[in-house]
Amino acid sequence: MLSIHKISLVQFKNYRQAAFTFEKKMIGITGRNGAGKTNLLDAIYYLCFTRSYFTSTESQNTQYQTNGFRLEGLLDKNGQREKIVCTLKDGKKEISLNEEKYDRFSRHIGQFPAVMIAPDDADIILGGSEERRKWLDSLLSQLYPDYLDHLIAYQKILQQRNSLLKNMTGTGQNQDSLLDIFDLQLVVHGVPVFETRRTFLQTFIPQVQRLYNYISGTHEAVDIQYVSTLAEIPFASQLLQARYRDMQVQRTTTGIHRDDLLFLLDEHPMKTNASQGQRKSFLFALKLAQFEIIRQHKNYPPLLLLDDVFEKLDQERVTRLIALVSSDNYGQVFITDTHADRLQQAFAGNQALQLLTITG
Question: In which domain, by residue range, is 188 found?
């Protein structure tokens, strides 16, 4: 079992200084727009992932006209009390677990799994391929530490290779021998990432279909197609064949960093053919399937962070969602809403609900 007992925030986003204690399984967070409900969820997410869910720029996580922030969380994990501290000061970030600082933040990923569902998740369907890779990588990194290690190494080598390609254009020097080395390293780290993605999606898709049927109340067929050139031609051959083109455009044009996911509804692209309601149902199915996979892998449920879900779903879908997340398969759930009475009504009679009001 995983739960968060207490969190304190100092200079994090709109919080000058605040502390919250969570005593029950279901935590309803209410308050007006702009009060800080989403920021509180993001602080919890930050403790689990060492980064914000909403921005990659640390300055946007820091309260205006301050030089850093501090987050501290007390969590219970399988009966053990754990303390996580995240600090940023003058651009330097530190993460510690039980007073021991991490030398590599990646070692923290997956230790305290969490799933966030937020309004901006629509970008997973409607946005570019980077959004879909980001979602998939975040999920797989919580399951497989080796996957994250390969991904980090691949990105580092990719940057070095791209820098070399740009320098070659400026100097006119032939660097085939160095490109050979980079290509070999990209293959070493890229192929395991590709194989993990492909194998995982084969078992993941049925979970998404089952949850889509439940949330939507329909039996429409949904599917996820993994689009990767590595499925067609060996990666090493691709890199060699694309080398001249890469030199011309000064970047690496083939590899796992260009993979994509194609979401389908009744064999048609969801991005262009699905209604808003169908897309919302699919996104919830996608994230809740993510939750189920992590729970099965870890043997305990991750934290579930639901931001503003009442504004995104009709009453029928909300009723199904609340029934699902209130079941024994789910652990601690955080849910935000602008209306306290709506939360109380949704969880009427549920003794596991704790209601917090954020005043801003």
Answer: 125-297
